[in-house]
Amino acid sequence: MSSVLEGRAGLAAAVAQAAEVAGMLWQKGWAERNGGNLTVNVTEFVDEQMRALPALGEPVSIGIELPALQGCWFYCKGTNMRMRDLARDPMANGSIIRICPDCASYELVADAPVKPTSELPTHLILQNLLISSGSGYKATLHTHPIELVAMSHNPHFLDEDILTHTLWSMIPETLAFAPLGLGVVPYALPSSVDLAKATLEKVERYDVVLWEKHGTVAVGKDMMDAFDQTDVLNKAACIYMSAKNMGFTPEGMTDASMKEIQDVFNLPKTRV
Prior knowledge:
Helix content: 25-40%
CATH superfamily of the largest domain: Class II aldolase/adducin N-terminal domain
Distance between the termini: 48 Å
Largest sheet: 9 strands, mixed
Strand order of the largest sheet: 2-5-4-3-1-6-9-8-7
Number of strands: 9
Number of helices: 10
Structural class: alpha+beta
Radius of gyration: 19 Å
CATH architecture of the largest domain: 3-Layer(aba) Sandwich
Shape: elongated
């Protein structure tokens, strides 16, 4: 175990959960090579002794001022690191960073200077929204769920209301455990400002966002929550595609059945 985690049970548990999710992403085939990235807010687990640790290098610019991140600390996947390796050794394949007082740069802090994911600015912009909106969400997760990405190659499903309705109708648990549905962002260059801005707009309405022909971004109260929402939506996509592979279009649950689920489980009354 990395020394920075020793004696800090909450921090160690958050990092271990991120590692567990990384392993599941690899097992599902959603994290080829160094594909995907994750970030979790670990500020609540940082003690005064840890706050006094020196930085491992010069501050790195985020490229934007994010005032809601003042005093925040994050664990994130390292750039060019593989999820399967992060699952095995999270501190050798990830980073702990703290946001500098200017809220526009960060410093590496911990046991090894592993450069964070290249998608870190996008993750931090999302984290800034999660904090400023009072959501209570701590985790952001980007991965490549095969069946959801496949559905995004069909222009019919780029209408997020059609896609959400289709996924909800496949199995009751999808509506129950992903009640906000799935937002859709048209294709944009990975790591681009346009992609980040479009994702930010969608996260204001959805907990999971599908990037056309690329992957998903999910937010949640912790890393497992972000994974679970992605997982239930992709299970619905698997059911849809399995039916299509059998030669028919699945009927899906009726609107009346889905409204009943919303009523019984007191879910948001949206888009059914």
